[in-house]
Amino acid sequence: xxxxxxxxxxxxxxxxxxxxxxxxxxxxxxxxxxxxxxxxxxxxxxxxxxxxxxxxxxxxxxxxxxxxxxxxxxxxxxxxxxxxxxxxxxxxxxxxxxxxxxxxxxxxxxxxxxxxxxxxxxxxxxxxxxxxxxxxxxxxxxxxxxxxxxxxxxxxxxxxxxxxxxxxxxxxxxxxxxxxxxxxxxxxxxxxxxxxxxxxxxxxxxxxxxxxxxxxxxxxxxxxxxxxxxxxxxxxxxxxxxxxxxxxxxxxxxxxxxxxxxxxxxxxxxxxxxxxxxxxxxxxxxxxxxxxxxxxxxxxxxxxxxxxxxxxxxxxxxxxxxxxxxxxxxxxxxxxxxxxxxxxxxxxxxxxxxxxxxxxxxxxxxxxxxxxxxxxxxxxxxxxxxxxxxxxxxxxxxxxxxxxxxxxxxxxxxxxxxxxxxxxxxxxxxxxxxxxxxxxxxxxxxxxxxxxxxxxxxxxxxxxxxxxxxxxxxxxxxxxxxxxxxxxxxxxxxxxxxxxxxxxxxxxxxxxxxxxxxxxxxxxxxxxxxxxxxxxxxxxxxxxxxxxxxxxxxxxxxxxxxxxxxxxxxxxxxxxxxxxxxxxxxxxxxxxxxxxxxxxxxxxxxxxxxxxxxxxxxxxxxxxxxxxxxxxxxxxxxxxxxxxxxxxxxxxxxxxxxxxxxxxxxxxxxxxxxxxxxxxxxxxxxxxxxxxxxxxxxxxxxxxxxxxxxxxxxxxxxxxxxxxxxxxxxxxxxxxxxxxxxxxxxxxxxxxxxxxxxxxxxxxxxxxxxxxxxxxxxxxxxxxxxxxxxxxxxxxxxxxxxxxxxxxxxxxxxxxxxxxxxxxxxxxxxxxxxxxxxxxxxxxxxxxxxxxxxxxxxxxxxxxxxxxxxxxxxxxxx
RNA sequence: GCGAGAGUGGCGGAAUUGGCAUACGCGCCAGAUUUAGGAUCUGGUCCCGCAAGGGGCGGGGGUUCGAAUCCCCCCUCUCGCACCA
Length: 878
What we know:
about 900 residues, alpha+beta, four-stranded parallel β-sheet, about 20% strand, RNA-binding
């Protein structure tokens, strides 16, 4: 906890009266105690089954935000819950400490990224302790430390040896503001994932990991993950991988004979091809046009098409545009010659960069054909046929093939596989599977990342740095200025002897994408201080895979795909014996809060809203304090730009870590959006206070720990016991089935309410059992609070050594249940009966009920259903 | 456009998976207590109605003795992908 926060905390508790719960003191006490007890230090020697709980590690930005709070609170609660369930829990924490903010700060302030990062790490580590999150800090990693990135570089060399790290020239995404290239996965809505700057396409020579080679396996791995990962994440990855089946068909340029293969998912429409479209960047265009009579006419139009970046193409409402090249292609299925166009809707990055255009059966092609007056030839016909002149859109449904050579008259869907076999037999094409997934661009033109361990020698070419020379350490003699990679300014770094011939050579100055660092950090945690290898196989075998991974869904197609790919490669390298690193994944919801939008001043903080009426947690109909314009309230994700941030330290100082934790988990299931409200956290705080005074007042009337519960309890005490044991049953299910801690808290509240209503008449031993059960169930959520009362109850060991309560089935069994009686679906009465009462007895009792008799007067019973132990349902007529 | 998820009081949300709709909490109302506070305690709080009673889970239809839950159609919101050949 920060110094400022701590002082505010003691101030807050200082205002409470003597009997009040002094959370600052108590929370510090238990945080220190857990350290002494080494509660979170997990060792391989422990005989209990292992449970690896992992939260996505943070970038050390300098201060925790509410996104971290929900993520790490959930992780800590799960870790403590599993501990109570008897597992040897490993819950590590570390730092994704390479990356641009540190470098940008260096450019701005002159502070070296290393110093900046270390300071942030120290501060955030302390904040985490103050929040009550327990980690095995012996396993801490920071990806910017040479003893970590040394192995990141080592893995790069392994990938390089296997031909999976390659340097190639390709059109890559360039972010001007970040002055670096970005991977496909890091482009969102045509902009940079980090800063939002519009991304440009640039041809550059870059390092890639050949992730596309793993497309099929990444997809196949989903079978193992189904049910264990959120469906939404698997769906997003499936879309991202974008598998499609079809064929490659061997078209040729009519005039020159140049091959121009196309990928299509609709080989059944080959006979309807009326033109071909290629991407404006397609290399064949320059080859064909150079020196041709069409060059003068086509090149300017082509330049115009190329000038529009892919991203803008996406956004520009997609007006189809293109230019006829003057050339033609031969359709191999029927030898027809059709015109070759360059079109803006054809993407160089997908398939072969060429599209066979079938306007009758593809909406895009249809629009393009209509715009440029190209012919439309239907070859797949519905039963009623197609009136070519009346067509207003492409016909994309199944039908019967027409004018399609040997396949005329056949149903297109059924014919598809035979068409592909025919293409192969005739040498006119072949079956093919195409993926949208591209190779992972991992070069970054920035300083603060792991240097790519490659040296360029004029004599020997590209030479990998030998393993014994790792790590390639980031130099200190760099100038942090805008424009250009600071790493290139370091002479001591760039100049290096060629490892092969010893002559002067140049080092690669690109560093690796930070997603490379995060693709194996979960492995390093298993053996964090290993100096001779990234990890030992024994440690990995002990801890991996991660049993429960917890993080934000925004990484569905970034970190979570990269880490899976990376692990598969390590598997193929023989370094690990599993392919999927994360057995279970849970994605917590975003933390949202009301934000205010002024038409003139844009987003404004709540204290700049004047007038209006408080409606729940929002101010409706207020005006802006600055410009008097009306202000709109909106529930939205907590962010700096929307000025609705909440400072976790301030909340911990004001209400205590336990209240923050309780609030985060008691309001909604954790995978849903979490609404932050000051009233809500205050409610959580009061819940703690209420239980505190109830519990501390009751301690005096309790027998010592382990006291026997008398056999001859009266009805009231039996009820309290019954509810206690029913609580255990229902809560365990709610947690196991999706971390529904909110219902666990609700059930505990119910029991507390029941206890309070009976408190003067409850036997001391029953009271102890009830309170200890509640404490053990709540202890993962409010650990400091639970420990403190547990201790005051005379318990010597930590509550986390006490184990999860076990329900006593006999005590939980109901003696009498209220059986509802429905008449035509409406509740008409109840009868009390033992839970195992026979159907006939229930029927008799129901019909004898006075309200039921009244409702049945003058009517005929058509049907009578008795579900023993549940209800009686009567259908009547008349 | 495609894909995924969601829609229940003033609000966050429960509902043993087809069986008493609105648990628990917030807020609100009334009262108690109190050298006044974001404290505590008691009671009330889905809607209409004085009542008996009736109506209610985004809308409409269906299956069923019985539907928030299953099926069909529609509407709204959120997220992801988006000219993918």
